[in-house]
Amino acid sequence: MTTGGGAGSGTPLLTTRPVRRQIAAGQASLREHNLSIVLREVLDNPGRTTRAKIAYSVGLTRASVSGLVEQLIRSGLVSETEPEVVDRAGRPGVRLVPAGRTVVGLGLQVQVDALAVRAVDLTGRVLFDTHEAGDFRGGDAEATLAALIHLAGGVVEALAGKGLTIAGACLSIPGIVEGSVVRFAPNLGWLDVDVAPALAGLGLDVVELGNDADLAGLAETRARRLAARSPQRDQSFFFVAGQVGIGGAAVVGGRPYGGVHGWSAEVGHVCVNADGPECRCGSNGCLEVYAGKHAIMAAAGLPLNDPIETLLAAADTDPRAVAAIDRAAHALGIALSAALNLTDVDTIVLGGIYDVLFERLQPTVLAILRKRVLSSRWTTVKVEQALTTDDASLTGASLKVLERVVDNPAVWVPAD
User: What is the pLDDT of residue 8?
Assistant: First the structure.
């Protein structure tokens, strides 16, 4: 999570569901479960799976899978493409893919320097993407949210005009969140801000709130799963998103681990120097004051709001830029070695501004990890570049909404 990225529970803000005790699965709930696992197989293996392959993978009969697939196709959640190419006798199966341009998830984002809205469909395609630059650090939360809802309203109207169905929206915030409340977002200057009244203006049935680093971790998990074609349960890594603040997400078994309150992985506020400068969180010596974007740019003598590419270019000739990057890399190595010792994962994934600086950061960070991570004696500790580079938390917010569709597609499928 962050503060400059914190954590998020992803609890729906504007809908409530009764708490039900566990009961034996009836025919309806079994159908819901089977629809979900079939749809997830299609999303995780787009264009690579067929009815027969799904039946083999999930342990259902082919006839059962065929019936479920037909329901998902009629509901606009799955589409068919060309038959697979096979070198055996028998009729080839028809490849299945997520349906595009039907159901979409709406991602909203507030960062210190921009507001953004993105609509993503089940294929992962971005259908609408709009940004509004500004300086929102220490600004009025109500005014900022009003500007965001105004920006989002145009996207909602455009989606409706194209006949697309919005499954819901998720707001990404660089801070600690709980339910509908932003408990603390130090780089925005928000404290105990309830966003529900503003988000109600979208007129959507389900709107939720999430931490930016957790959502970026969700987007990175999906990108890695599709790239490696590996099961979700095999994805475990510590994701670090560098912006003005620094967010973290401990992804274990394909899902961000939130901790007891949903606020874990606050790596930006791990102390790397007890006598260091004061941080906006109220402590001092935090990783963020050494490796956050503004901290690095200030140390390099560059304008704080310049793109990080300016720093990278300056590092070719300016010793101050080189020193600022080296200082950030050393601080990252110290903080992330503690993160790996605590979480027992063996892979660091660097995203956000660290994606741009990866080649200069990676050697120093890796050297420190190999020295300070206890398990490095027996496992291979890795530092990898993020696959998601373009506003990963905004994509993750959209995907968070679509995850609810996948978890319960029966809502979208007629009972017959």
Answer: 42
